[in-house]
Amino acid sequence: MALWATSCSSSEKLFLASSAATKRRMGSRRRDLVHVGMTDQAETETISIGYKEGDRERPKWADETPFSRLVEALISFKPFYSLLKLGARQVLISTAEKNNIPWREMTKEILESDVYKELKTIQNTSLQYPDYYLSPFHAYDEGNLSWLAAAEAEVATMSMTRRAIPYAPSNEEATQEMRGNWVQAIKQHHMKHSGNVTIQNIVDIGCSVGVSTRFLADEFPSAKVTGLDLSPYFLSVAQYKEKKRPPRKNPIRWIHAAGENTSLPSKSFDLVSFSYVFHECPERAIIALVNEAFRLLRPGGTLAITDQAPKSKILQELSPALFTLMKSTEPFLNEYYLTDLEERLREAGFVNMKTLLTDPRHMTMTATVPHQYV
């Protein structure tokens, strides 16, 4: 079982009180997974939120086994791949509809809006896409470079959240658990290791349609937040949706660029975030993204990665049918699971690596740029 514990500020106590109340409402199914405890000290609160780990470092279906190779061969057979692609898409849509997430209505609303006008204001027409990014992703032949993928991205994220946290009483509480635990892991790591460096500048690399970016902007309202992505379609939706919200004191900046080479100034950020990005990348891209994050962060700055958890008991015990569907829409999933991510961070120069299961299927890994880094 993964645990996380440290001291919290008064603002974090408000979240924890709300989170504890939510978890009490979740009933006995949750009691073996989560514990929230408070010390007697007036200004100190210690928390531990744990989710079940499996017995292995990673799922056996990600290892180089005869069965894993058979699955890869099946996926490479185009007629069968087409069926798998449709099946994987239907799993997400079915999960959404069973949980009162209006997949078709939300998609239609985007596709029939003025979102297309945002493209010319955000697209970098001279950008060269990495070869891996041109692969089919998530049952879309064009990968992330299409309006349909962009229109469905947020509702697909909502569906993914419900699959990860099916016991939550509502979609809102599922989101609060997933995103809330993630941001608290970031806050607590930064509080412990930054040397009192305030988070004033944030870049969310691989921001998609801005779900994680908006969450960070809400949690750090005094910070200047940048959302960066390779898909101009995703960024168009992000910008369009942000314009529908009340104006922020610090408006989010959206940038169309490669995460491996952002062209942003060195040592200009206190937090670099990757949310559900690395499982879509080959290892060489993961290494390049980590190195770029190190360059972008100031000494004492925090790197935060949240993604699928190799040690998740649920993922390790997926049925053959489900992991075959999952692998059929994620061409680099095996590389992600076989990558020693903490070692890649260490090689880039990061210190204070910590990995937590922040929901039953996903982990958050945090690390620090050394204070003596020049």
Automatic annotation (TrEMBL):
User: Would you say which domain of life the source belongs to?
Assistant: Eukaryota
Q: Ranges for the Methyltransferase domain?
A: 202-301
Q: Which InterPro entries match?
A: Methyltransf_25, Methyltransf_Superfamily, SAM-dependent_MTases_sf
The entry lists its GO molecular-function terms as:
methyltransferase activity
Q: Which PANTHER family match?
A: METHYLTRANSFERASE, METHYLTRANSFERASE DOMAIN-CONTAINING PROTEIN
User: What is the protein named?
Assistant: Methyltransferase domain-containing protein
Native source species: Gossypium tomentosum (Hawaiian cotton)
